[in-house]
Amino acid sequence: MRWLPLVFVLCLSACAQQPPKDDSLYRELGAMPGITRIVEGLLLNIARDERIVERFRRIDIQRLRNKLIEQFCVEAGGPCTYTGDSMAESHKGQNVSRSDFNALVEDLIKAMDQEGISVPVQNRLIARLAVMRGEVIEH
Ligand code: HEM
């Protein structure tokens, strides 16, 4: 019992070192229901997008849906875990070009417009995904 205050102080300082998690983007995207609608809208827009739809014809769309929801949730600071493959692994051998990448981002923007997400909030999500560009294209 004598060391209880010490444990308390140690715990407090350990906790203080964790930066508070910023989940504002997650909330502004509408949390899980909003992110789910955005991902489903993105997939519908891809299905109508002749520039890139061919690449998605023979894959497990249900899996892609689920992994994208997890990934967007994590990137937005939400309480999720991404359980999919790395971006380098999942796009390896696909030879995704810069214009393919831009087309997908346009489809995502359209999906967020359809959900009434404001442009500054859209830009925050796009910025999080843009850093993955190097791992997605030309592999
Ligand atoms: C920022 C941009 C992108 C992100 C965040 C992203 C994210 C993802 C994620 C999370 C997966 C699932 C990984 C898994 O199954 O474990 C995936 C798979 C896939 N992505 Fe992307 N992706 C992006 C860009 C693109 C582009 C531009 C294309 C092609 C036009 C593309 C085509 C695919 C395909 C075809 C798969 C399925 C691979 C398979 O199951 O074999 N992705 N992507």
Structure write-up:
With 139 residues, this protein is mostly helical. It has one domain (23-135): Globin-like. The chain has helices at 4-17, 24-28, 31-47, 61-75, 87-91, 98-114, 119-130, 133-136. The longest helix has 17 residues, at 31-47. The radius of gyration is 19 Å and the shape is globular. The mean pLDDT is 91.
List the helices and strands and how they pair.
Layout: H1 4-17, H2 24-28, H3 31-47, H4 61-75, H5 87-91, H6 98-114, H7 119-130, H8 133-136
Helix pairs in contact: 3-4, 3-6
CATH superfamily: Globins
Bound chemical compounds:
protoporphyrin IX containing FE
- How large is the share of residues in beta strands? under 5%
Which structural class do the helices and strands define? mainly alpha
Form type: globular
Mean pLDDT: 91
Largest sheet geometry: none
Kindly state the percentage of residues in helix. Answer: 55-70%
SSE topology string: HHHHHHHH
- Annotated CATH topology: Globin-like
The total beta strand count reads 0
End-to-end distance, in Å? 59 Å
Number of helices: 8
Question: What low-confidence regions span 5 or more consecutive residues with pLDDT below 50?
Answer: none
Please name the CATH architecture.
Orthogonal Bundle
CATH class: Mainly Alpha
